[in-house]
């Protein structure tokens, strides 16, 4: 039972609002004996940080993380690790005009419907600012996984534009502000996104996240399946509307012959799969192949074009967003996706160890 | 922490193997005072039951459910409801030859990798037979939701063939064995599936599941979001590889202008949304619109065409399935999808009541 | 969130009413690869079974347990183990007269107050019959713990009569129907209990349960402390009103000097404690000393002497119990206590392994 | 699955070490719409705060709490409430000498045995300092319970000295630094405690905590029984070795006749119980009577008298505590007990509402 907690054995509880004094999280269940300092976490936060390029919101946050507990003389102690980031650039006045208005595509109406009130400043709790703490916690999850598991993500679609899979290069993704793994597409997208940004419009995206080095055997059927947990983890990211594992939605169009990942004897007696339609998961358990997931991020709802909406009192109005925003919120979802993948895997590593020794 | 338990407050724990003596589940947290008898559950099981048409496996199971606890004089008492179905037509000999072989696309290898052994008879625990108990539990969830909420599902794609949305008719879906809501497509698909079945091949599918009558306010952000819970619920169904809410993966291709579900004042002061790209969920909370999800089911991995694989000892072999199987396992996923939607909603109804009174 | 589930990683979900068709439980999280058959479980059930001596209720139940899932060819598979016992000797007519009356000391009134109705036959869900499933699950927990950990319990007080600690002998406890570890007291108690039984009266008891061989390091502070989990486990047994660890309530009367368990270097460098006021638990974590708990069981509320009470309609009445009952329900709590201790320890063994490797 | 989280629906996750920069907690699941400010919480912290009288440790902490999230314009929003207290008077040097030594009765050895290392400054995570956050969270629980439920605690035994029940007066307990409800005993105890303090010794205590105004029907059998949850809650408080409900351990010495709480028709048709041996709980569900629990706190292990112990390297040593300490740690457990009672009750209020409407 957890509203704001993620994970089974490695449990992350986040708190904080977009424009409150701070945001933070407790990471509980961290194994003892790991080296951990702010320096292990900050680089991942910097990757997600707003204002890094002209393609993301110009809110200026240093996102400087502090470790407040659970680490003694640079080593985790097995007690809860508390991470905190103080909010700096809050500019609440930008958002004052939405106090009484429900922005289409945002959670304004539903929070009010559920709770009877909401902290409307910057979206309050529903803001993607919460994902900073996921990224911070994800850095700890990587520590737990150790060097054998590599988790990385890239943006493989921006609006109508996909990538050329033959040009897929992780090192390219690491070097452009759109995290696009196709150098040619990266340039095209950059130009397009400039135009979209200037027009005050926005565009959706698809992110792909992959983990290599995951051993066979992680995942807890029936209701703790690795893919089910990944689906929840990725769908819980702001603005996500679809999640795929391996072949994903396209699996529906295949025949059994095409979909079968044939197996041949591999080195060391381990199976060698000839394809990975399954995305590295069979029956909810990792197969030793790369774990591959994708998800769609809807276009940012904050746009300059007026949209019809209603006020809290039910009267009609129009909404257009004047404040800072991301023209493609999918960009900043890339490091968040890596964090969620790392968290799910670390959790299942521990879960597997608990039951199967 | 739950391997075989689903839900937060309405908790379903399933047990049983495909060819064990019985399968069952405990439904805990059921509100007291509801009328409940086997007659409320059996019709849903009958809808999912194998051998209903030539399109599903010919295993003959009556799937007769018994209520063993939690109901007194026809009324739920608030104590756990135990449901059990005895397995009848087990034909274990059909599966003896897979004891030492890993079937591509199945969980054979991963179960062995995780647990060191597996009950290989009919797939053991990894068999879709487990979903019978989800359907049974789902019938109780419908009781909890009451008459105001309607949950129904249809198959909207079979392999390469989609439906014509203009012909979408729920009553049509209820009357053909493929649960296809488009009468024209239903006929075409039936012919195609006959050919696929005779060829010993298989095909994937997309299922759409919808709930109407859900009030605004259900869902528990951040990590108990209604869409995140739905994603896990649907991804946990056997053979599912992708889950979408509302516009789904296609949201990535939209602009902010197109994606916005504009709002106008509706009757009784409630908001009237002009579209439903969001699939009835904003910020993880229901908006009062229909909750709409879709998911892709991969083609059955059991096919007549030989596929390369390995044995338990690592040696190479070929696998072809001679036993009974479903040419399109998506068909029987339709009632399962309804059950999972009903279970998630009933759980969130209770969760909302707990926190928000 | 679990009404009817016990444990964190080793999870036991029980179901069933005293006079329903059957009772059962699902044991989830069992490690794979353990030998397990009904023969491993039945002896513990036989120890708890009613009608074993003249000191326990004369209800005749064979309490024959069946394993319905989770075991393949005599080995646990890591999937949920379902255990079931059919109820045989239900004699519901004995209890018909309590349908409209609230028996003092029973849960009749509170179940009605909570749920609005109750299965009054034999106490329904509130009956101690549920503890049979705890005992069955406890047998599996012992398997998980392995031979290094020994769990045993004894009755150390019956009403006003304690034991002489100098005569404490576990082998004596194993051989008398009152599980009394003091041979002299066992005889005295037997005589007293005969008188109490004939008078239709009842008497309370204190049970002591001990686990030896528990390594240092089990327990999960702060809210999964080994002693806190034991306290909940033991307090959840029917009729228990107090739980003690080590020195227990008497710790309040000690000085710091007397209460300190001094430590000296032991063999193999392990600490040797000179006393065990702590009951083997410090800071919620096992110390390697024997884990020792005690709990008080109130006298059976079902007695022949009329007691004032009210009917469901609020009117005054008197209640006296004519049906079968236990003059000292503490006797049958002995095997239940062992089961709960074993379950808590096995759970914490797995929990420790998950976090600390 | 929660190491550092307490509660089912109202979930409190605490973090922080005795001598780290801060301690804090997240209170998740708080209903929206409650007035809440630091002013609602601080008085309870002040009651527990060290250095309030000469009978408690002289560590000087202002224990000033800050609300960092979950409250907007003075009203709870339904999102997680983060509370934080900065540590001020840490004096780590006092504790440097215990880095390599295991103090008898403390968690030093077991933390090292479990985690392989520990933050030894002031006991680190195992310090009773953690209970400050319980008290803070408890203040929120009281808000949730509302004015109809009153929770209060008193110290009813100090070492060998009990109270005279005939002189029990809650207003007396509120006015002396020992929270003793018997004015005569309060004076005697004060003198005794002065002597104990000067001698560098310590003494145990029994605390009684009571809730009035609890309606019948709270509690979730079988494994979420109100008394089982209370037992875990109270046993999880530092230094607690025994927990009693109602008649407690003494129930073992009673006959069924004496133990029965007879019932007569009360005003408004509600039952009127003639005694409260049950402590307000029957079958794990509240009966509408006062809920009454007691627990024993062992004497502070930190004393001036040298006690034998071992060092981390296994060698023999002696330990005596020179730093600040509480001669009777039971005193400060009084507000903690109230907080735990309030938290358990608020949780069960919500749990009951979820299932039973």
TrEMBL record, chains A, B, C, D:
Pathway membership, UniProt: Metabolic intermediate biosynthesis; chorismate biosynthesis; chorismate from D-erythrose 4-phosphate and phosphoenolpyruvate: step 7/7
GO molecular function, one term: FMN binding
Broad enzyme group: lyase
Cofactor(s) the protein needs: FMNH2
Binding residues annotated for FMN, in chain numbering: 125-127, 238-239, 283, 298-302, 324
Cofactor note: Reduced FMN (FMNH(2)).
Enzyme Commission designation: 4.2.3.5
Highest taxon of the lineage: Bacteria
Name recorded for this polypeptide: Chorismate synthase
One Pfam family from the record: Chorismate_synt
Subunit structure: Homotetramer.
Gene: aroC
GO biological process annotation, one example: chorismate biosynthetic process
Reaction it catalyzes: 5-O-(1-carboxyvinyl)-3-phosphoshikimate = chorismate + phosphate
HAMAP family (alphabetical): Chorismate_synth
């Amino acid at each position: 039972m957890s509203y704001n907690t993620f994970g089974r054995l490695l449990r992350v509880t986040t708190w904080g609002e977009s424009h409150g004094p701070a945001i933070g999280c407790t990471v509980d269940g961290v194994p003892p004996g790991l080296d951990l300092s702010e320096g292990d976490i900050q680089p991942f936060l910097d990757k997600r940080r707003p204002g890094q390029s002209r393609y993301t919101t110009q809110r200026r946050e240093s996102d400087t993380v502090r470790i407040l507990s659970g680490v003694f003389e640079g080593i985790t102690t097995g007690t809860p690790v508390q991470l905190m980031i103080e909010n700096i650039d809050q500019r609440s006045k930008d958002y004052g005009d939405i106090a009484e208005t429900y922005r289409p595509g945002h959670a304004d109406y539903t929070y009010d419907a559920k709770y009877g009130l909401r902290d409307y400043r910057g979206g309050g709790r529903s803001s993607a600012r919460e994902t900073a703490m996921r990224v911070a916690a994800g850095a700890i999850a990587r520590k737990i996984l150790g060097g054998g598991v590599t988790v990385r993500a890239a943006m493989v679609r921006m609006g109508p534009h996909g990538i050329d899979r033959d040009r897929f290069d992780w090192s390219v993704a690491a070097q452009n502000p759109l995290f696009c793994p196709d150098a040619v597409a990266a340039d095209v997208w950059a130009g397009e996104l400039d135009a979209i940004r200037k027009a005050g419009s926005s565009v959706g995206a698809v992110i792909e996240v992959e983990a290599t080095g995951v051993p066979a055997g992680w995942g807890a059927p029936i209701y703790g399946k690795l893919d089910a947990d990944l689906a929840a983890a990725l769908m819980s990211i702001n603005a996500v509307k679809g999640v795929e594992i391996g072949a994903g939605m396209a699996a529906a169009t295949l025949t059994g012959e095409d979909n079968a990942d044939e197996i041949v004897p591999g080195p060391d007696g381990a199976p060698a799969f000839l394809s990975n339609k399954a995305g590295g998961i069979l029956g909810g358990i990792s197969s030793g192949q790369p774990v591959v997931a994708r998800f769609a991020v809807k276009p940012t709802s904050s746009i300059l074009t007026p949209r019809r909406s209603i006020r809290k009192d039910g009267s009609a109005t129009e909404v257009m967003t004047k404040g800072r925003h991301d023209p493609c919120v999918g960009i900043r979802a890339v490091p968040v996706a890596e964090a969620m993948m790392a968290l799910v895997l670390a959790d299942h590593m521990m879960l597997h160890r608990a039951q199967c020794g």
